[in-house]
Amino acid sequence: MKDKLITLVGGGGFLGRYVAQSLLAMGARVRIAQRDVRGAEFLRPLGALGQTQFVAADVRKPESLARALQNSDGVVNLVGILKGDFKAFQAEGARHVAEAAKAAGATALVHLSAIGADAQSASDYGRTKGEGESAVRAAFPGATILRPSIVFGREDQFVNRFAGLIVAAPAVPVLRAATRFQPIYVADVASAVVASLADPAGFGGKTFELGGPDVISMGELVRWIARAIGRNAAIIDLPDAVGSMIASFGFMPGAPITRDQWRMLQSDNIVSAAAESIAAFGIQPTPLVSVAPSWLVQYRRQGRFSSDATA
Q1: At what angle do helices 93-104 and 124-139 cross, to 10 degrees?
Q2: Do the strands 144-148 and 207-210 form a parallel or antiparallel pair, or are they unpaired?
Q3: I want to staple 119 with a disulfide (CB 3.0 to 4.6 A). Which of 33, 130, 141, 292 is the partner?
Q4: pLDDT at position 309, please?
Q5: 311 falls in which pLDDT band (50, 70, 90)?
């Protein structure tokens, strides 16, 4: 990857920072393309002088992508949203990125999708992720599509959100407690992205589902987080009738929930038996329990001074 120019569309986000760091360490030139480039300036010190570039781009505006992706050897589309205009960002936006990558002459395109992507999904999120995959395949047949389960890491908005809720409330309601996930460490996803960029002949034109070594239900996950931070909050598994009502209002204490997110929770978020997985990249996935306590310690009553802060 040395001296290759890789453009990360949405590169200043949670996963993007890990991908950028890996690429910079390998000597690649990294261009961050996103709507507000000021939000990605923290990446500049990670590279040598001139190794990191920043350019404003919006996946809804093809002309901005044409400029941003010029001369790129590889492109990674990291754009995704959890609420808002799904079609504009995840379906049409994905098509715009793939078309611009093709026009720029890029030899590799990695598209970040999600487990559950399906053009027939009842969820707007899942449906537009599926439509985006189809659009990418049509515009750039050699693209690598990666579908991670829930991605966890120090800066995530999933494990940290529940930890914060457990700290703030004496009781924590859990929606769809039996729904299963296969959490995948953010650095492992970044490694799969970089491997795909480095070997488009081997990984291009394929779809991979990425999950960690553990399959865990929503209820089990919240209870594990509570134990990891030494809190005794009551964990309450809500019946579906109550969960559906809460989703209709769009809010539960400490955690907004949309109707579309409720639809997403109706299905397990795990790697399917027939899918090509992270094993294809030679990556041994990292267990949640081996890394999460290092940052969850901040939620313990005495922080790093807790006697069992590493538990």
Answers
A1: 20
A2: parallel
A3: 130
A4: 46
A5: very low
Burial class (CB in 10 A: 0-12, 13-18, 19+), 98: buried
Q: Which residue has the tokens 């809804």?
A: 60
Tell me what pLDDT residue 254 has: 54
pLDDT of residue 246: 81
Q: What is the pLDDT of residues 155-213, one digit of tens each?
A: 999 999 999 999 998 899 999 999 999 999 999 999 999 999 999 999 999 999 999 99
Does pLDDT of 244 surpass 50?
yes
For the whole model, what pTM was predicted? 0.93
Angle, vertex CA 82, rays to CA 80 and CA 85, nearest 5: 80
| Cα–Cα distance for residue pair 258/116, rounded to 1 Å | 17
- C-alpha span between 283 and 113 (Å, rounded): 19
